[in-house]
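Supplementary Methods, section 5.1.

A reviewer requested that the exact input to the structure prediction be made available. We therefore reproduce it here, unchanged from the version used in the analyses.
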Amino acid sequence: MSKQVKIEGMSCMHCVKHVENALSTLEGVESFKVEVGSAVVEGNVSDEALKNAIEEEGYDVVSIA
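The structure derived from this sequence is encoded token-by-token as follows.
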């Protein structure tokens, strides 16, 4: 299952790395592609888990579709 995540508060590749690190620790995530302001996540992971992991890094999740 693919999820498109819109993220606010990211401004550089350092931010991208923080989100990548957060996603890499989540159980159920098979793969992901992170860009400034968004991420596409493949796998079986809940929206709540995605939101919590990203927001723990200091970024705001605007939407998950």
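The two ends are 11 Å apart (CA to CA). These observations are discussed further in the main text.
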